Amino acid sequence: MGRRKYTAEGAPSISGVPDSQTRQITCPQCHEVARKRTSAVHRAERDGAPIYCSASCARSARRKWSTPEERRQGLREYQRHRQAADPAWRERRRASKRRSYAKHGVATNARHRERKAADPEYYRKYRAAQDLCQSSPEWKMRKAEYDRKRRDADPAAARLRAAILYHGPILGPIYAATNENRRRLAALEEAGD
Ligand SMILES: [Zn+2]
After folding, report:
1. Residue 144 domain-assigned?
2. Phi-psi region for residue 47, left (φ > 0), alpha (ψ -120 to 50) or beta?
């Protein structure tokens, strides 16, 4: 469970165990002072074994750390394996992600905004990772393709493009906006009749 913080009086007592039956140790994993039963400290000393403040520190000390590249490689292998076993797997996973985003997206974005305001360093790191990812040629190609599809799907944008083509980059948007307003007005008048 969560680590208890070192206080001025020393490490917190173990509940139900008098301090006289405990000793303070410095955890070799998190370097915080903790209180352990004297018998446990003696046993560790006898066996020449390290003694940690908590089960979670003992676990992370035992963990075999892999590099980010090894983890990515493992993930790729896992995905290939799943996809080979079940051709619908990727699409199902995507659909589930979309559902999840529709459900939690707004709340998640709000949480990120809060975190960004509270900790500029967190946001700087986040941005740096994003910039690195988005600087790859593959990403740029896919983004351009995505933008093109979005533009083609939006009739207002298509009108704007046509207006810019005919009237130039300065007058085009004005004409497009005027046409758009005219259309809206006509629609309103029709609805009023
Ligand atoms: Zn610890």
Report:
1. no
2. alpha
How remote is the CA of residue 121 from the centroid of ligand 1, in Å?
26
Residue 33 Cα to ligand 1 midpoint, Å, equals 8
Mapped onto helix, strand or coil, the DSSP state of residue 139 is helix
Range of the domain at 182: 153-192
CA 59 to ligand 1 centroid distance, Å: 10
1 pLDDT exceeds 50? Answer: no
More confident residue, 131 or 154: 131
Q: Confirm if 140 and 134 have CB atoms less than 8 A apart.
A: yes
Q: Total structural domains in the chain?
A: 3
Query: Do 39 and 86 lie in a common domain?
Result: no
Question: How many angstroms is it from 18 CA to the middle of ligand 1?
Answer: 21
Last residue of a domain, one of 64, 84, 105: 64
- Interval between CA 1 and ligand 1 midpoint (Å): 11
